[in-house]
Design a protein that fits this description.
Helices cover 47% and strands 0% of the residues. The two termini are 29 Å apart. It contains 9 helices and no strands. The protein is elongated. It folds into 2 domains: 79 residues, Orthogonal Bundle (Arc Repressor Mutant, subunit A); 127 residues, no CATH class. The chain is mainly alpha-helical. It binds a DNA duplex through α2, α3, α5 and α6.
Length: 245
DNA sequence: AACCGCCCCAACCGCTGTGGT
DNA sequence: AACCACAGCGGTTGGGGCGGT
């Protein structure tokens, strides 16, 4: 009825603060609910996305390590475009991030290929050499705040490399030829599973860093904001009881 | 200095899966 | 068993920044 128009587009700092605070209160689950009670005129979906892809304290940001790049390639060959699944194996990385990374990588490859064909007489880049490390030294953002990614290795799984085992889900993870990496990841998962703000699901491997300063800063500000503006004080709302009682 | 093109990332959209009633 | 609401996923797009001309 009074329903204001749903906000879209980039999030403001204030919105972020609000969202973070409400997730802190109610956990990272009930997005529709959070969207409503927070007063953000956003959809639950939008809130979730913002949290998962940007605000979650466990996010790494920055360049993918060569290890991560390799892992992405491997996992994609195994599972195809199951980004969220792949993301679960990369602590601190989001499906969106991986998806974007992959997309960029594929585009570069496509371009390289084209160029190679253009210079057909002498194909300079034999893209057939699987796992030859192409260093797509993409000029861009070499030092950008969020960091850029550079390509890992070669291997052509366009976008559904999954064909091999895909649905098998197989979880044949054991026989994966990347034991070291797996161990690494398993360990990091075990170590990071204790995230305070939400009962992250099995998959949510956004590890909680030793309190990222930006996170603390953000949360502190929130408290202040809520004090000063006494934002609808969710504590006093029936919602609070509904959830906690 | 201005313009153009490319690249990256954040965010949206539509569909599917899942749990509750 | 059917329906509904919500969460999650994958695909796609638009904006902004950077480098090159």
């Amino acid at each position: 009825m009074v329903q204001q128009e749903v906000r879209k587009g980039p999030w403001t700092e204030q919105e972020d603060f609000k969202l973070v605070s409400f997730v802190g209160l109610f956990g990272d689950r009930r997005w529709d609910f959070i969207a409503k009670v927070s007063g953000l005129n956003r959809t639950g979906k939008s809130c979730r996305l913002r949290w998962v892809n940007y605000l979650h304290p466990g996010l790494k940001r920055g360049k993918m390590t060569p290890q991560e790049e390799r892992l992405v390639l491997e996992l994609h060959s195994k599972w195809g475009n199951r980004w969220s699944r792949i993301a679960r194996k990369l602590p601190g990385r989001t499906d969106n991030e991986i998806k974007n990374y992959w997309r960029t990588l594929m585009r570069k490859k496509a371009q390289d290929k084209k160029r190679g064909e253009a210079a057909s007489s002498t194909p300079t880049k034999p893209s057939s050499s699987v796992h030859s490390s192409i260093s797509v030294s993409s000029k861009k953002h070499e030092v950008d705040p969020h960091g850029s990614k550079k390509a890992g290795e070669e291997s052509f799984y366009d976008t559904g490399g999954a064909s091999t085992q895909d649905e098998g889900e197989g979880e044949g993870e054991g026989e994966f030829s990347m034991d070291d990496i797996w161990k690494d990841i398993d360990m990091s998962e075990e170590n990071n599973n204790s995230f305070v703000y939400g009962e992250s699901e099995e998959g949510c491997n956004l590890s909680c860093p030793s309190a990222s300063s930006s996170w603390e800063y953000c949360y502190e500000n929130l408290r202040v904001m809520m004090d000063e503006e006494s934002l609808f004080c969710p504590m006093s709302e029936p919602y609070f009881y509904a959830l906690n009682g």
